[in-house]
Every structure is written in structure tokens, then in C-alpha cells.
Amino acid sequence: MTKPAGRVTLPSEEGFVEETKAMMERWGADAIRDSDGTALDAEIKALDAKIYTAYFPTRGHNEFIEEHMEECPQIYLLSDFTMARAEELVIDLLQSYYNEQLDVDYIHDPKTYWQVTDRTTGELVPEQDWKVQREGNKVVIQHTTLWHEYSVSFLAYIKWDPVQMYNHITNDWGDKPHEIPFDVKQPHTNAFIYDTMKQWLQDNPEVDVVRFTTFFYQFSLVFNQYGKEKFVDWFGYGASVSVAMMEDFRKEKGYALTAEDFVDQGYYNSSFRVPTKTYLEYVDFVSRFVSVETKKLVDLVHESKKEAIMFLGDQWIGVEPYGPYFASIGLDAVVGSVGDGTTLRMISDIPHVKYTEGRFLPYFFPDVFFEGNDPVVEAKENWLTARRAILRKPIDRMGYGGYLSLAYKFPEFVDYVEKITDEFRDIHDHIQQTKPYTGMKVAVLNCWGALRTWQAFTVAHSLYSKQAYSYYGILESLSGMSVDVEFISFGDVLENGIDPSIDVIINAGDVNTAFSGGEVWKNARLIELLREWVYSGGGLIGVGEPTAVSHQGRYFQLADCFGVDKETGFSLSTDKYFTGQTDGHFITEGMTKYNFGESMKNVYALHGGVDILEYSGGEIHLSANQAGEGRAVYIAGLPYSPENSRLLMRSLYYAAGKEAELHTWYADNPYCEVHAYPGSGMYAVVNNSHEVQSTAVYDGQGNTSSVELEAGGILWQPIREGKLR
């Protein structure tokens, strides 16, 4: 009997033909790819598989860019804050940056494009009071105010591709040249990129799929003087800056961008910052430009009868998969790195492509595949967290990246990947492209809305952050939950109202972040719309500091809905009497183990009608409140765990007034979940843990059964005939 095959992409490398054949058989791979640092030889390209070849439009041609170094990408950087202790102050621009990555831009007039700022007052230093010393990359400031801090916002050229630099350091590529990036906005580069692409397509007829890694502008990744990451923002548009881009923006918009628009006091427009109108217009401007230039490359690929796919990473800035211009590009597919359920949904929900593909972890690099380490541990965790999301909205393909020769040395890892590739195909065979049962529609409300679908609370791609994990857990929980999820912005609500198909709105985050909302909650019209919706029967869930801004005696601007507010120190003289905990509530029924992560201090009840579900240390961490015909739930924090995911699920059903529908395709063990596919006549019971689990299972007709599942197990069953609830 022939082993099932398909839906799997295998990395390979030169001189590894027989081993590649064996791995193709074991994992059922029908496509082969190269990776950054590897190449496929003719024998591998001749194998019976689709050939993916990574293509880097803006790096890997030092012979070209060394003749046009003024066409390297640019970035605005901020010097260290430096305190004045005399009337003259000297600031070293690159003191805390990696000299091998950056060069200060002296081609364009610093007096036109730089800014020197008194950071104690926020005022700009007059141009006549500072001068540039090119030798040593210094700025000298005259007539300073003693004990004030100053900074310089300056333009720099990126002379070493940040991702190649990262891989260079990680894999000890000591002999490899530093690849110099170049900017598609510049005239020589623009012509070179398209001429080179045309020639490459002619020279590589055996390639079936061009895997763009990615296109033009790198997400913000800057290294410090020690060669370590100084700051990384997976959404950062800082490296898309150039004088040419800014001048075109000025001509179209009628106003000039400044250095401060990009350095943003040193926050660099992190996605946690409430975006300014200027920054949103710049993101849109760059995205429109990138979509036009990207389409040219994609059209060339299609003319060569090949597929064009992009990797959602590296130079992905401007190619916003949930943005307004993505459909116009015409890509065949998107592939992205799968770190968990949230990042899988970020890939699998992308519209306007023929298929999506996930690159699973671990990456076959020596930082994981070394003697004494067990890569199976990471592979298991990666698969179980991603599988929850696959069962809700599957990617079409899966694969890996890196050096196959490293993974080949770990037979237990090879065995485990064989198991999960078979399971991945089995999931597709059972789902048959049908939509899973969904209990309700949930909207996540923040400043970014749909543009950052499944991307809220992310610092760097699926990496942990202490300040954000209490919120990221919301997305991770939702990624595998039996609910439809959409992301809406405050602007959407103000312009269009609230879609009546939405059952529950979630607002979460720390005060003054883009995710909580900040000053937008002073907009009376926003408050009116949300209050009317809740009091008319809508569900509202707030996590952390929802609707928070200090205004008119309230901190939570929808405190009336939540029934709770936060003490900020201004009303300590006002007693808080309501502390009695409610027993036997629907939300906490059967729940004994949950946590609130970094939590939130000093939240208190406004009246005795609030159901206080967790009260400790003199503060509320979990509560529910009836507001007119609607309901609101407050949670102090929600890092991901199976128990917290269940807590959120019960909160959603309570807020929506759908308690009676919870036990529809439901497992009472929080480590297990049920996913039903009425269209294919099948349902799955899954164990999301690394231990054996038993659970009662409720089907769509209210019938119950008991199931025991092995560690990480999945059980498929036919749906009984009869009318589903």
C-alpha cells in the first residue's frame, strides 16, 4: 500500500540527494525548497517534486550595490539621550549601534532631514546651535541648558541585510560576505531588480515556485554595538524610509514628514503605540507603492509559467496581507512561520491567495540541532499549539526550513515529523474543505482593526514578552476556539456602527496602548455606540485596562457596563464596600485552575450588583455585570493555558447570553476540544496536552459519551444522523 503523500514541503541542500529521497518518502513531501544559506543541485531539482527556490529581490548582489551605495535602504535612528553638563554637548551618533550594519547618511543635508531635540522640554534645538562632525559621527550642540537631556534623530544607510546578519551570527558564517541590501525606490536599483528577475527566470527553467523572501523593505531590526538585537519590531516601517519616499509623500499629501515622525521619542511607532494620523498615512502610502512594484515581479513570474509565493517575514513591510492593496498583487500563495495557534491563523486567514503554507518549528539550524539537545520537545509543542488553529482554519500545506542534514542526524525527530505530516493530511481528508461548527462571532476592538488581523499584542514574531503575554493569550485561545473572529478598529465603529452579527466585543490591553485605545475613549460618539449596543443585548469583555483613559471622574470609560473601575490614587478617600465573592457562577463553574498573568492592580466594584468571581489582595481580577439587556465581563489578564482558554470561552458564552449553547460540540476537560464539520459529516475530539486525558464529549444533538485520548491524540467520529442544535 502506497504511503499517503502531499501537502508537505521539504528543505534540502547540495550533496544530499539519497537522504532527501528517503525523507520525501518518510514525510510524504511533494515539494522541495532551499533555505537561506543552502542551494539545490541539479540532481535534487530533477526529483519528482515541485521545486521551490528562495528569491531575494533586494540582496545578494554586492557587485551591483557596491557601485551605488547611495541606494541602500535608509532608516531614521535616535542617538542615546545625553545629558548636558556644560554649554557644549557632543553626541556620538553610533555609540550604541553596530558599525558593521549602518553608515550615517551625509549625502543628504542633515540640516534638512535631521532633528536635534531637547528631550527635557521636547523643543527642537535651532539649526544654528548644532553642527555635524563627520569624523567620528558626532553632533556638537551649543548653548545647551544644563541638566537637560538631548538627542539627535538622524538618517542612516543599512549596509548589511539584518536577516542575513542574524543568520550569519547564528550559523557562524564567518567566510560569507555581508550581503548589502538595496532600495527599490531608487532608479538604478529599480531597473536592476526587474532586469535581474527576468534573467533569473530564464536561467532557472526547472523552478516551479518562486518563493519571494520577501520583497523590498525589512521589518525594523537594528543591532547594538555588541552585535546583539537592539530593537526589533515585526511591523516596523522604519527601514522603508528614504529621502525619495519622503519627498514623494510630501508632493502627494501636501505636508513634509519629519525625523520625529519616525523615531517617535524612541518608540519607533511600535504597534503598541496609538498610531498617529501621519503614521497611518505613511503606512498606506508605502503599502500602495510596494503593491505596485511587487505586482511587476509577480507578473514576470506568471509570464514564465511559474507560481509566485511570498514568505511572510524578512522584507514583508508594505505587503500587508490584510491591507487594501494585497489582492491587486496577484500572489498565488503565502508561506509564514508557525510559532503557535495565533501565528498559524495569521497565515491561514489570509485572503486573495490560492493556498497558504506554514513553516513549522524548529528551524533546522545548529542553535537547536546540536548534540545533547532534543528537538522533538519543541516540535511537539509547536504542533499541538498549531493544530488547535488548523482544526478551525487549516493552512493548505506545511513544511520546514534550514539544513536537512542537521535534522537527519536526529532519528526520533524524523519519526515524530513523519507522524505529524501524516496527521496533517488526515485532518484535511476529514475536513474536506468544509467550515467547522461555530458558536458565535467575536470581534477584537483596537486601533489597528483588520490591518493587524491575528497580529495584536505581538512584539516580535510569536516571541514572549512579559508585558504582553497576558493579552496575547486572548488571541491564542481564540485561534482554536469554536467561534468566528474578526478584528475591528475604533474608526470602523465610528464610521459604520457595530455589525449586528457580532455577539461579543473584546477590548484588551494596557492604558494608552493601541490595543486598549487611549484618548479615543474621550470620543463621546464612541461611548454612545458601545453603550447602546451593550444595553441592547450585546456582550462586552474587557481585559487589563479596557476603555481606559482618565476622563471626567472615570478611568474605565465603560465602567458602567463592566460594573468595575480602577483606583488610580485620586479617590482613595472614597470607600469601596463591595467585595463579596459570588459563588456558583456560570463562568467559573467547574473551573479550579486559572491565572491572570501580570494581572491588574486596584480594580474595584462600583455597586453590589456586580458578580465578583475572583477577589484577592483587596482587588477584583474577574467579574461579570448585567448592563441593561447586555452583559460585560472583566478579566485582569489572560495568558494562554488550556484552563484560561476555557475561562474565556465560558466568559464569551455568558456575555453573549448563550449559556444554553455551550454544550454543543464540547468537551468538559479543558485540555480537550471538539471540532465538528457538519459539511463532511465528521467531528474530532483532540487532546491538546502531552499527557493522557479523559473527557465527556457533547455532540450536536445533546448526546454525551466518554473518551480517553493518548497524549496529543486526536479521535475522529462520524456525526450522528439527526437535526443538529
From TrEMBL:
Sorted UniProt keywords: Glycosyltransferase, Transferase
The organism's superkingdom is given as Bacteria
**UniProt cross-references to Gene3D superfamilies, sorted A to Z:** 3.40.50.880, Glycosidases, Golgi alpha-mannosidase II, Immunoglobulins
Q: Which residues form the Lacto-N-biose phosphorylase C-terminal domain?
A: 665-716
What the entry lists under InterPro entries is as follows: Class_I_gatase-like, Glyco_hydro_b, Ig-like_fold, Lact_bio_phlase-like_N, Lacto-N-biose_phosphorylase, LBP_C, LBP_M
Question: Any keyword rRNA processing?
Answer: no
Main EC class the enzyme belongs to: transferase
Q: Which residues form the Lacto-N-biose phosphorylase central domain?
A: 441-659
Q: Which NCBIfam families match?
A: 1,3-beta-galactosyl-N-acetylhexosamine phosphorylase
Please give the name of this protein. Answer: 1,3-beta-galactosyl-N-acetylhexosamine phosphorylase
Q: Which gene encodes it?
A: gnpA
